Amino acid sequence: MGIYDPRFHRYTSGKLNTADEFQFRFGIVRWRAQLPAGQGMWPALWLLNAPNPWYWDDEIDVMEARGSLPSITTSAHHFKTGVDRANQYNTAQLDTGLNLQTGFHEYGLEWTASRLQTHFNDQVVFTDTEKSPPRPDVSHHERRRRGPV
């Protein structure tokens, strides 16, 4: 039996990792996407720490959606605080009133020294001024298929 065996695994996952291709700190990133449809789909664009994105300290979830909720997009900022490095996060959700799976829409991030702000079709989804990540981030786009969402 290989790593993927349809007799045991109903969902698969894919990832586009840009760790060696694209890094930035502060600026604007925008892209257009038509999101996948279906139960278990979880498209997302996350930004993780550089140079080691798997040492999780800060994470910017520019866009996450669920295949079972076709009009909703969410954004979040995960970070650690205090001496004990406790995990914290701020998040927001937007019901766009549109089916994100039937057409292309623009998603974006504006990142300054004092603010993170995400956008959907030029509409603000999320603003966080609590803590700006201290290091450059690396973008990772994940399109996942998970169990029922």
What does this entry look like structurally?
The chain has no helices and eleven strands. The two termini are 27 Å apart. Helix content is 0%, strand content 54%. The chain is globular and about 45 Å long. Residues 136-149 have low confidence and may be disordered.
What labels would you give this structure?
disordered C terminus, Jelly Rolls, single chain, mainly beta, 4-stranded antiparallel sheet, 149 residues, 7-stranded antiparallel sheet
In short:
This protein is an all-beta fold and 149 residues long. It has no helices and 11 strands. The protein has one domain (13-145): Jelly Rolls.
Mean pLDDT over all positions = 79
* Radius of gyration based on Cα positions: 16 Å
Beta percentage is: over 45%
**Which architecture per CATH?**
Sandwich
> pLDDT below 50 for ≥5 consecutive residues: which ranges?
136-149
Outline type? globular
Q: Give the H and E element order.
A: EEEEEEEEEEE
Structural class: mainly beta
Helix content: under 10%
Number of domains: 1
* Amino- and carboxy-terminal Cα gap: 27 Å
What kind of oligomer do you see?
A: single chain
| Number of discrete helical segments | 0
Biggest sheet overview: 7 strands, antiparallel
- Tally of extended strands? 11
CATH C-level label: Mainly Beta
CATH topology: Jelly Rolls
